[in-house]
């Protein structure tokens, strides 16, 4: 009887561990820029808000964020942020979320590079992409870690600086401390408000909204990122049971999963954080569970 109780308790612990691992993920946000980035996070409608929804990420710093099962939403980087010494209001030149505080209660003001996720979606897959539909403000890379099952678990993102070569009519020029500098590249929709660029009105379907010279500027530079609203075929990726590293200003390096002519760190990249090297993590859950059960059965056989 005692053996059965111990075995059931062991199985219960393993089950809880298995469920907690499958139904949650970790997003590790890494800043490889030479400047500070303030990430913002917005959960989709009906989805649990993450904590925190905004924070400061210094150069070389990596911060993990726990993400619950079924979460959907978007992440981005805010730049050139400051807090008014008199009013205490927190604002950013790019990617500002309008909350007036370090944490966000709304989405990013365009232009901003966005990482978008739906975890445990159709078929149990995670769907993710990097979008330039709302413009661009800094390079970003999404790297799945330890994904299994269906899906190709490919790295995606935009690793190049588009602010310099941005068409002059799309450039967001800043004033103040960074006056005269292009700090972000607008989408044609934001710049001109034309339904043809916004995929709205008579252009609100995949058949009527097609690539333009402006969307092709983004696509040619970042082949795996969304360049306009219906750019699904080459821009949405899937994975299962993965954690994700979201890197701002990723350092280009060769990879078997290159970004269509770009160079980007693959899913096995090594990243240094304040707590050490971020490695591939623990053994897969199924392997750990099998080892525990086999060890217990071996003990029963040899000592009783």
UniProtKB/TrEMBL annotation:
Residues 1-24 form the signal peptide. The keyword Disulfide bond applies. Pfam families: Thaumatin. Disulfide bonds join 33-249, 81-92, 97-104, 153-239, 158-222, 166-185, 189-198, 199-209. InterPro entries: Osmotin/thaumatin-like_sf, Thaumatin, Thaumatin_CS. SUPFAM superfamilies: Osmotin, thaumatin-like protein. Keywords: Disulfide bond, Signal. This is Thaumatin-like protein 1b. It comes from Anisodus acutangulus.
